Amino acid sequence: KFGFIYFSASTSSDSGIATNGSHQVTKGGLNDGFIVKFDSKGIRQWATYYGGAMNDYCESITCDDSGNIYLAGTTESDSGIATAFSHQGTLGGKIDVFLVKFDSSGIRQWGTYYGGLEKESFPEICYDSERLYLGSTSLSSTDIATPGAYQNTNNSIGNVYGNVFLAELNSNSGMRHWGTYYGGTMGEFVNGISYDGDGHVYICGGTQSWSGITTLGSHEDIFQGTFLIPYLSKFCVTAITPKNEIIGADSICVYSSETYTIASEENIDAYIWTLPPGWAGSSDSNSINIICGTLGGTIGLQIVRCNDTSKMKTYNVYVIPPAPAVITVDGFTLGVADTNYNSYQWLLNDSIIPGATHKFYTVVVNGKYRVVTIDRFGCIDTSDVYRVTNYTGVEDINGLKQKIKIYPNPASDLIYIQAPVPVSVNLSSIEGRTLMNERNTQSIDISHLTPGVYMLRIRNQEGILLKTWQLVKIPR
Fold it and tell me: What is the pLDDT of residues 289-317, one digit of tens each?
């Protein structure tokens, strides 16, 4: 690994094995395990014994991507093996399996026993990310499997081999995640173990059992030997981070809807989606429909498989800041404040005005006006309502003129104004001097005026001149 060679075995030699300053310079018992590191030219870098006062044997070794070394073997020693706070700090029975981790300089990181009251043997190990997998044979009926495991009991108590067990441990701490037995009534052993990088562990070895080993429809699902035949088994052990990428728009408009998806994988029990704050949407499949909020963020996805939840696959999405459509008013010409739009559509009473697709629109009738804009990113916004209630067209003015009446004329005191809309009255002399202004009135008193001819002008509330009369004031 990284240009170095690691070798482990067992020895009864008292010298020629360990280097000065290594983890264990002297042999501890009758037989000790040892591990040695060579460079690519075969020059020894360091070496150490590993064992207690009894017999200890190294039987399997592997490395991780950081250059750490993991060693598995069997031990009869009740000291010199385990470290504090590891999975199992004391020898469980006659012979236990042990696991130990060294860094690339040969410094022990942790060590643990793994075993029950009887004998464990033939350990094999493999590594994946922060997980270490141990396969071995056990005659013990306790301290091997965890609750809810694939197989909770040892089906081959009293036989030569017992059942195989498979366990997962944390490679950083040596703590167990789970363990399970595997086997039938006649006994099994392990010869090899491997992780495929896709969440599965494979173990192989030999079995004497007629049942409890194969699955229906496999290559050979019936025991066809007379004593001992090989087996190969595949376990789903972990949910890896989804291999495929999340697909969907990486820039979206405020409050828009979008679909995000990821290519499906085999044997997925559930999908767990995580959305940025303020977003809406939920799904337990490989696709999710969302409505975004005002801020962007990270979409996350985890998968559940083999009673395990994967690390999160992430996808960053940018939410385009809104460009609100705001109506401006210039007389009866409506416009849009911002010029950063690609298209416009004016609405009257929430219905499209045909042909009204420009920045400006001239009102031709009273009503509720809105404008729908699309900006350069394709984001749509609809303005607030602008109400027009004061528009009077040419036809409306002519109609009003015909409906407005004043009487009596001539008059001596009161003049009455009859109009279908509120009006203002301006009374002036023939020379144009204003004598009276009245708003929203239906009558005026001229009793104080000198008899003669006056001008009476009627306007609507917007100041548009509707009608002009010559008013004759007569004596009382």
Answer: 999 999 999 999 999 988 789 899 999 99
Report the 3 state secondary structure along the chain: CCCEEEEEEEECCCCCCCCCCCCCCCCCCCEEEEEEEEECCCCEEEEEEECCCCEEEEEEEEECCCCCEEEEEEECCCCCCCCCCCCCCCCCCCEEEEEEEECCCCCEEEEEEECCCCEEEEEEEEEECCEEEEEEEECCCCCCCCCCCCCCCCCCCCCCCCEEEEEEEECCCCCEEEEEEECCCCCEEEEEEEECCCCEEEEEEEECCCCCCCCCCCCCCCCCCCCCEEEEEEEECCCCCCCCCCECCCEEECCCEEEEECCCCCCCCEEEEECCCCCECCCCCCEEEEECCCCCEEEEEEEEECCEECCCEEEEEEEECCCCCCEEEECCEEEECCCCEEEEEEEECCEECCCCCCCCEECCCCEEEEEEEEECCCCEEECCCEEECCCCCHHHHHHHHHHCEEECCCECCEEEEECCCCEEEEEEECCCCEEEEEECCCEEECCCCCCEEEEEEEEECCCCEEEEEEEEECCC
Residue of 412, 417, 419 whose CA lies nearest to 456: 417
Q: pLDDT tens across 174-225, in order? A: 999 999 999 999 999 999 999 998 889 999 999 999 999 999 989 998 888 7
Q: Cβ–Cβ contacts within 10 Å for residue 134, how many?
A: 25
Phi, psi of 402 (to 5 degrees): -70, -25
**Which amino acid, 419?**
A
